[in-house]
UniProtKB/TrEMBL annotation:
Biased composition (Low complexity): 16-32
Higher taxonomy: Bacteria, Bacillati, Actinomycetota, Actinomycetes, Streptosporangiales
Record key words, sorted: ATP-binding, Helicase, Hydrolase, Nucleotide-binding
InterPro entries: DNA_helicase_UvrD/REP, P-loop_NTPase, UvrD-like_ATP-bd
Boundaries of every UvrD-like helicase ATP-binding domain copy: 237-614
Taxonomy, superkingdom: Bacteria
Region annotated Disordered, chain positions: 1-34, 789-815
Family annotation (PANTHER family): DNA 3'-5' HELICASE, UVRD / RECB / PCRA DNA HELICASE FAMILY MEMBER
Residues the record lists as binding ATP: G258, G259, P260, G261, T262, G263, K264, T265
The protein's name in its UniProt record: HelD family protein
Species whose genome carries this gene: Streptosporangium amethystogenes subsp. fukuiense
UniProt cross-references to Gene3D superfamilies, sorted A to Z: P-loop containing nucleotide triphosphate hydrolases
Length: 956
């Protein structure tokens, strides 16, 4: 037997590495590092020559694919040259798979053309082996050599589970460096062991692996690569749940909720490519619009679509969707009113109030409008004019279209009376037009139905208290009306238009003339949690078909407005096909340690969202908290950023310094970095960016240094959410440098397990270089963090109201043993809550109960208690692996202990499991024996007995 290169581990039944050649990919694999359960470990020993032979075979196939590309390129060049300079591309439509702008190699950049091989049994096309790549490639006979990853067939194969491979006999992931195959990984293999492979029988659970559990060596290596400030596509390592959303074929709006780094942006961009594929929706590039939060974000994602072969898709920064220049910023109060969809009603009323059916007295005498005109009179009774106005007003259509209707009928009536009075006159177009332009006629028209423009109306609404007060009754409160008023400026050109004003102006143009902005067949909106309702209305107008992909995270809202659930925004955005919500729950960016550090803050800022489980292995260098004096903040942060930027000798690592917006600290950092960059040659400039916290949405860096988080969190109601965004931008490490105490939800100063009050926390800066003054009063850094940078255990969640806790413990203070019992129980409950799965399930249920308009609460002992329409309910939640009978029995005991301490028994008691129980008879057993009911997570919903009671639904 040949030499052994690498063993393969399986997680959840999937082999995760095979025969890697000692590079980082395979080196990254271990059951522990990927957080796996260790179940089903299969050792697979691959002889060296076997590996060489496989790589050689794959290399031949890859070379052939590139040869075909080259052949096609020559063919295209030939066609172009035969059609002359003027119409070089006229014959190209007849060449299969030619991208709109030919040049596959250039489009791909460094990305490999081919990344997967699939062998199938009983293939209807009569072939056994297929290769999947970023583009389709055909050979000289027109046969497919590589199929595009976007085809239905490729997606089905990429999504297949190792435990249910279907027709797949072999699925081989390929790793290439340029055009060279360097490695491969077979994650579905022939069932019959190859005679050259020796397989140790596996003990694999047939249960499907939870999301993220199939993280393989290629994925982990990919996540570890240095970030150069530009996003890359993820087709080679895309995960099943992500691919499901990319290829979701349902009509309507698809809302993708997901915590930081769960791949929402990646999913949105890959979905665009999927939609453009002629075998899927076949949209043209200019049918699609991608809306991003800011220019930096658009730059960051700019390479992804071209690399995937999709050029010509418009991308736009959200604020640029509306015509006009933003000259000012609204006060928070004005912003909240003007961006609310009630503003659309106010504007509608302002516009309609322009129509005044009763002609003013100056135009009417003796109830008749009459004016001399070329030897006769133009006359019409006032009542008739009023009827014409009312009729046009009550018809459908925009203001100016209805005005035209009125003008036409009014002039027609004048004309016909006039023609009768002067029989020699021909009622032709010239006469008609003359009558319409006649001064008194035009003046009456303008008096009853003025020709308005959007700017004039909005200025009046915002400057004139009478206008807004007249339009707002029943829609805006007195205070809200006051909030939008601003002093009048004398010239329209000086009006301080804000972004919300520009959105209102578009709404007004729509009301006035029916003006439609450019329309698209599909719109992707990223960071959509920050859209205002008025912006959402306007975006919906751009997509009358209601086909959109809406990506966001409610916990990352950085604007003044926060949505508890997606329903409100999605309802505005969607059309007749409605909307669907999907959630991504696995994080691919942020290291586990940093995510845990951020988790309490995430839960505090949005109860309804799931904190992602990080697929990136824990690493004790991922998190550093450092305290220094206020005068040294900038220097200390910069020193740390530079250290990080230059620490990795093998590759350049990107670093972001994130500071509170609009502060002297931010300016100081910007100045210092600019000065530094001015002093070194371009090649030596460390890749350090300085960013205000509000400009970090959607971005990522290898290392992030967040400076003075308390100041970020303190910047208005959105501050804590901005801080959450800032601390979740890193792929390698987060450093927090602070002078002020850390915000409670980060440092958790009062969490007893973390703080040793008698021991002043030591700043690592002080310890390391002695440069910072000691800060003896520092109460916020846990010794745990200061010593090893690891994240604290998740502290007790303080945000859920405690009222309604019918089973609040009532400890008899005199009974020492009872107290010890209670504290041991609390400890066990606390330990459970440090399990991600436990907390995911628990918060999901809490969100569900809030959705049912109940007020769930928790205590140090009870996971959830809730007074529902069917009485008080106590829930005991189980974490990872909690679906076994043994764990369920333990949980029953826990319920009894909790009730014993509370001295009360709930009317309903539920066990809440993360997945379906095994064995299936367990719930019935527990109901019969203990009167405890079991429910569990089932995909994105719930299953089990008596769900109506469990989910707080009213009887009947
Ligand atoms: N399946 C995957 N394989 C490799 N990398 C992935 C995968 N999924 C996501 N990533 C990487 O994780 C990082 C985060 O992805 P992305 O920016 O799409 O997340 P997000 O959910 O939009 O994050 P945020 O909400 O913080 O903006 C990116 O570097 C992306 O390339």
């Amino acid at each position: 037997m040949g030499s052994v290169d690498r063993a393969t581990l399986t997680r959840g039944g999937n082999p995760v590495a095979l025969a890697a050649s000692g590079d980082r990919a395979a080196g990254a694999v271990s059951g522990d590092r990927t957080g796996g359960t260790g179940a089903g470990i299969r050792a697979l020993v691959v002889p060296h020559e076997e590996r060489i032979a496989v790589i050689a075979e794959e290399q031949r196939a890859v070379d052939h694919a590139y040869d075909c590309v080259e052949r096609r390129r020559l063919g295209v060049d030939r066609i172009r040259s035969t059609h002359g300079q003027e119409h070089p591309d006229v014959g190209l439509p007849f060449v299969p798979d030619v991208p709109p702008e030919f040049g596959v190699e250039d489009d791909l950049g460094e990305q490999p053309l081919v990344f997967m091989r699939v062998d199938v049994a009983d293939d209807p096309d009569g072939r056994e082996t297929w290769r999947i790549g970023r583009r389709a490639v055909r050979d000289a006979e027109g046969d497919l050599v590589v199929i595009s990853w976007t085809t239905e067939q490729a997606i089905r194969w990429m999504k297949a589970r190792a435990s249910r491979p279907g027709e797949i006999r072999l699925r081989r992931k390929l790793r290439l460096h340029g055009r060279t195959v360097t490695d491969y990984l077979d994650d579905i293999r022939p069932r019959v062991a190859n005679r050259r492979l020796q397989e140790v029988p596996e003990a694999v659970s047939p249960a499907e692996e939870p999301p993220g559990e199939n993280a393989d060596a290629f994925l982990l290596a990919d996540l570890d690569r240095a970030r150069d400030g530009l996003m890359r596509d993820i087709v080679e390592t895309i995960q099943r749940d992500q691919l499901d959303l990319v290829s979701d074929g349902r009509p309507g709006v698809l809302v993708v909720q997901g915590g930081p780094g769960t791949g929402k942006t990646a999913v949105g961009l890959h979905r665009v490519v999927w939609l453009l594929d002629p075998t899927n929706r076949g949209l043209a590039p200019d049918d699609v619009l991608v809306v991003g939060p800011h220019r930096g974000f658009l730059r960051y994602v700019s390479q992804v679509l071209p690399r995937l072969g999709s050029r010509g898709v418009a991308t736009v920064e959200v604020a640029r969707l509306w015509d006009g220049e933003v000259r000012a910023v609204d006060t928070p109060a004005a912003h909240l009113v003007k961006s609310d969809e009630r503003m659309a009603e106010v504007l509608r009323r302002v516009v309609e109030s322009g129509i005044r059916p009763e002609a003013p007295a100056s135009h009417i005498s003796d109830d008749v409008f009459s004016t001399p005109y070329r030897g006769a009179a133009l006359t019409l009774p006032g009542a008739e004019i009023e009827a014409l106005v009312v009729e046009a007003r009550d018809s459908s259509g925009p203001y100016l279209v209805r005005r035209r209707k009125f003008v036409d009928t009014f002039v027609d009536r004048l004309l016909s009376r006039y023609a009768k009075a002067l029989p020699g006159q021909r009622p032709d177009g010239a006469l008609r037009s003359g009558i319409e332009k006649h001064g008194r006629v035009a003046s009456l028209i303008n008096a009853v139905w003025p020709a308005l423009n959007a700017e004039t109306i909005l200025r009046r609404t915002l400057n004139d208290p009478d206008a807004i007060h007249a339009a707002a009754p029943g829609v805006l409160t007195e205070q809200e009306r006051e909030a939008v008023l601003r002093p009048r400026v004398s010239r329209a050109s000086e009006e301080p238009w804000t972004l919300d004003d520009l959105v209102c102006l578009e709404e007004l143009r729509h009301l006035l003339s029916g003006d439609e902005p450019r329309r698209y067949r599909h719109i992707v909106v990223d960071e959509a949690q920050d859209l205002t309702p008025m912006q959402a209305r306007s975006i919906a107008r751009r997509c009358p078909g209601g086909s959109m992909t809406v990506l966001g995270d409610l916990a990352q809202t950085t604007g003044a407005r926060q949505y508890d659930v997606w329903g409100r925004l999605a309802g505005i955005l969607s059309g007749r096909d409605g909307w669907h919500l999907a959630e991504l729950a696995v994080g691919y960016r942020v290291p586990d340690e940093v995510m845990r550090f951020a988790a309490p803050l995430a839960r505090a800022v949005s109860l309804s969202t799931t904190v992602p489980v990080s697929v990136r292995p824990a690493d004790e260098t991922s998190l550093t908290i450092a305290r220094t004096g206020p005068e040294r903040l900038a220097d200390e942060a910069l020193a740390r950023a530079l250290d990080l930027a230059t620490a990795d000798l093998e590759r350049s690592r990107s670093v972001a310094l994130i500071a509170p917006d609009g502060t002297a600290l931010l300016e100081e950092l910007e100045r210092k970095v600019a000065a530094l960059q001015g002093t070194v040659a371009a090649d030596d400039v460390p890749p350090v960016s300085v960013l205000p916290a509000t400009m970090t949405r959607g971005l990522e860096f290898d290392h992030v240094v967040v400076v003075e988080p308390a100041a970020i969190a303190g910047q208005g109601p959105a501050g804590p959410r901005r801080l959450y965004v800032a601390i979740t931008r890193c792929t390698q490490s987060l450093t927090v440098v602070h002078a002020a105490p850390l915000p409670e939800l980060l440092g958790a100063p009062e969490a007893p397990a973390l703080v040793a009050p008698e021991e002043p926390a030591t700043s690592p800066i002080t310890v390391q270089n002695g440069s910072a003054p000691p800060v003896p009063e520092e109460p916020t850094i846990s010794p745990l963090i200061a010593q090893n940078g690891s994240a604290p255990p998740v502290p007790e969640e303080p945000t859920i109201p405690e009222e309604n806790t019918t089973m609040e413990p009532d400890t008899p203070a005199t009974d020492e043993s009872f107290r010890s019992f209670v504290s041991s129980l609390e400890e066990r409950v606390g330990a459970d809550r440090r399990c991600h799965v436990h907390e995911q399930v628990r918060y999901r249920l809490i969100a569900e109960l809030h959705g049912a308009r109940l007020v769930p609460s928790q205590s140090p002992l009870a996971d959830i208690v809730c007074k529902g329409p069917r009485g008080a309910v106590l829930y005991e939640v189980l974490g990872e692996g909690g679906h076994t009978y043994e764990r369920m029995r333990e949980a029953v005991l826990r319920i009894m202990e909790v009730e014993h301490v509370g001295g009360d028994r709930a009317e309903h008691r539920f066990l809440v499991l993360p997945q379906a129980p095994e064995p299936a008879w367990a719930p019935a057993m527990l109901t019969t024996a203990f009167d405890i009911t079991t429910i569990w997570r089932d995909g994105t919903g719930w299953a089990g007995e008596d769900l109506a009671t469990a989910l707080g639904q009213a009887p009947g």
